[in-house]
Structure formats: C-alpha cells, structure tokens
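Lecture notes, unit on protein representations.

Consider one protein chain, 173 amino acids long.
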Amino acid sequence: MPDNTNPASTPTQWRHPLPRIAATGLMLCVLSACGSAELPRSLSTSDPGPLKRSTPLDAKQVIEGSPATYTDDVYQSADGQLFVAYWSASAGRFTWDYTDINEVITILEGEAFVKTSDGKTHHLKPGVTLTFGSGDFAEWHVPNYIRKVAVVQRSPKPLVRRIIDKIKKTIAS
C-alpha cells in the first residue's frame, strides 16, 4: 500500500489495474481525437513509480491544510498544446482554475471531492473519469491522497492576442 501521507511514494502494487489500463486507452483516444501528429506508439500501463517533480500550489489556491502536489510528464506534443501527465496530491483543500485548458482526468488511486463551476460535487475514486472545459473553476478536497492521469489541451490564444504577439515580434526584430 502507498504511504498516503507522501504523494511521491511508490505504491507496492496498484489496487485497481483496470483504471490504469482504461486511462491509457483514454489518453490515446483523446490524443488521437485532438489530431496530434506525433502520437506515441504506446503508453505504459505499468506503475509510474514515485512522481519526481514537485509542483507546489500557489498560496492563493490553498484553502485548508498544506497539500503537496507532484507531477510527472508522460507525453507532450511538439507545439506544447497537448500533454499527458501523472499528478498526485496529499490531504488538503484547494482551488484550480481551468481558464486556458481543457482537461480529462482518470483517478488511479485515493479519492477527492471536487466542486465544479456548475455547483455539482463529484466524488472521485479509482476508475472515475471527469472533464474540465476551458473556463471551468473547481474546488478540490482531498481527504488523504489522490493520484490521477490527465490529458490536457491548452486553449489556443484568441485571434486578437495572436495578432498582438505577431506585431510585437515583428517590431522586436
């Protein structure tokens, strides 16, 4: 069993093999649907081991506790607009802003209660898949520990922002 006080700990075995296999299939389907030109030939369904990269929450996000979060990237498209990652968090309550991203997650271990922008609270546990659209906002309550796999698509910049960036780049050169 994992050390649930440390989101970077390595589980000795995953209690639910089906969610990790389903999550891998989900990742490949989403990547394919998003039209990624350089899809990976395969993604491993094996235990990713300890998540190495600490990704601390901004103090403004934390509502309660001292949640520690970790991430390991699995895949990123050449243009950086699409990526897949494992993510874990320890106990706490925090907010997450999905302003510029679309995200599909599947829970691998642990549980959380997530209140989404529409006011609904979702009980996340192994095997549950949830989507967040660009502009969504969520409040996460992790009682002990959670680990998920996420497929994230960054929202393209609005046309006006791209034009301004192009003008700035032209002026700078």
